[in-house]
Amino acid sequence: MATRAVARRQSATSGGTDTRASSVRAVGGEIADRDLVGMYLDEIARTPLLDAAKEVDLSQTIEAGVYAQQILDGEVESDAGGAKREELEALVAEGERAKDIFIRSNLRLVVAVARRYPRAGLPLLDLIQEGNAGLVRAVEKFDYAKGFKFSTYATWWIRQAITRSIADQSRTIRLPVHLVEELGRIRRVQREFNREHGRDPEHEEIAAELDSNAERVGNVLDWARDPVSLNMSVDDDGDTQFGDLLEDTSAVSPEQSVLTLLRSEELEDLIGKLDNRTASIIKMRYGIEDGRERTLTEVGKQHGLTRERIRQIEKHALLELKRMAHDTGFDAVA
What we know:
Blueprint: H1 2-9, H2 33-44, H3 52-72, H4 85-104, H5 107-114, H6 124-141, H7 150-169, H8 177-197, H9 203-210, H10 214-223, H11 254-271, H12 276-286, H13 296-303, H14 307-328
Helix pairs in contact: 1-3, 3-4, 5-6, 5-7, 6-7, 9-10, 12-14, 13-14
């Protein structure tokens, strides 16, 4: 098919101005995003949409250019009647122009898809730019001979590019792509439900629409929540930060430090009343001397006993320590 396309277009004349697919650029930061979007829409609206016949025609031209480039690169042998290098180079250039026209004529499709993600956490301009990359990929991969409608085919590639960008860039904690897409479906149901009923849907109502379950919906929404900065100000003066209001549950108060010291000294006295082997086993198991807790197996090897025997000795020793602590009144402050 590509060979026929080369032969069919060898005599075609090239011309026109070389164009490239539009990319969205900020202008010095002086124009608001909405103005940039408006300018971009005005620019891309100048290119007319394509009908099915034109899509096929451009696709054939692109295919011929790709095949001509392969001949020039020596990847395939020419069977197009000994085409000259100049003719092949002309076909390559014509294919590039056709590709640019194809891309430009579908940029509005990218905007339409990008606007489906209003709560993505990225500016619309960034979503459009990512979608444009997906559109380029769609044009390169499109096979007109299969009879598919290009807009349907391209939408998948555009959506893939946008959702991957959202997953990679929009969140402090990255979500997998499949979760981003699932979140998008949940958000869409939320918007439609709110529009119809004037309230936000319950998790069960969302799950019913998506053939899911309420627990799954709740989990996805929880995972998607943006983290709260500990440096966020909570008063008008900015003197108090959110982190200042959180209790450090791992911090030890002065009173608790004194009590812990008293307890440790009392505990040493109680352990000292055990026989030497039992005392050694308890100290090793709970890291009393060096802070390193040993496993039953490690203690067993040290004392030449089985793991099960160490467990039995430990259990008996703990019961004995508890009894001694009760007798001395130590457990009253424990």
